[in-house]
Amino acid sequence: MSTRRVLVIDDEDAVREVVQGCFEEVAGWQVLSASSGQEGLEKALTEKPDAIVLDMMMPEMSGIMFLRALSDNPTIRAIPVVLLSARTDLIDPDAFPMMGVRGAIAKPFDPFVMVRQVAEFLRWAIEE
Question: Which CATH number characterizes residue 60's domain?
Answer without folding.
Answer: 3.40.50.2300
